[in-house]
């Protein structure tokens, strides 16, 4: 059981703050090389301490989350024909400049996924920055990176935020390049 005392902003709201803290904890577990199957998360419980502070408990037992599905090269290759699906590359901008990117993908670095997909980001701001409509909780979002590890992490974060149709490109950029060279 991981317990953390956090400050609550009246404008931010408890749900978004809990999701952001869950994403930080999940990221820390990732950096400790704890695999997805080992990290089991259940409900988030809050206990008021005062008007501005709550104790939030994140349990790592008795998960009810289902595994994040993956997509393959052919699925990603068809994305230009499916503008309703969003492909998010979570690599850093420098990595994209060195290697290139998959057509139709937008870049949201892994460290920014929570902030960019948060409910308090206005759809007009998302559209003007990324040239795509901000996804709803029901829209299909596919995450990609260099090899697939960060893509899976981003998909888990989006899933924890409430997005219901998230996937990750298992081979990501490395698989894309290998398959494009064959064709």
Automatic annotation (TrEMBL):
PROSITE patterns attached to this UniProt entry: RHODANESE_3
Residue ranges annotated for the Rhodanese domain, each copy included: 81-181
Claim: Zinc-finger is one of the keywords in the record: no
Organism domain of life: Eukaryota
One Pfam family in the UniProt entry: Rhodanese
Keyword Transport: no
Entry keywords, A to Z: Stress response
Name of the protein in question: Heat shock protein 67B2
Native organism: Bactrocera dorsalis (Oriental fruit fly)
């Amino acid at each position: 059981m991981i317990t953390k005392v956090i400050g609550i902003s009246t404008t931010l709201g408890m749900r978004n703050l809990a999701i952001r803290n869950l994403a930080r904890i999940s990221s820390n577990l990732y950096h400790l090389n704890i695999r997805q199957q080992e990290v089991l998360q259940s409900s988030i419980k809050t206990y008021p301490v005062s008007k501005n502070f709550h104790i939030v408990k994140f349990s790592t037992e008795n998960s009810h989350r289902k595994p994040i599905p993956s997509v393959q090269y052919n699925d990603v290759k068809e994305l230009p024909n499916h503008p309703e699906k969003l492909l998010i590359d979570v690599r850093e901008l420098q990595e994209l400049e060195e290697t290139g990117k998959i057509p139709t993908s937008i870049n949201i670095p892994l460290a920014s996924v929570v902030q960019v997909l948060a409910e308090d980001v206005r759809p007009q701001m998302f559209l003007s920055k990324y040239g795509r409509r901000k996804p709803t909780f029901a829209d299909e979002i596919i995450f990609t990176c260099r090899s697939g590890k960060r893509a899976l992490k981003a998909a888990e974060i989006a899933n924890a935020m409430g997005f219901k149709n998230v996937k990750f490109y298992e081979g990501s950029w490395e698989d894309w390049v290998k398959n494009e060279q064959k064709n």
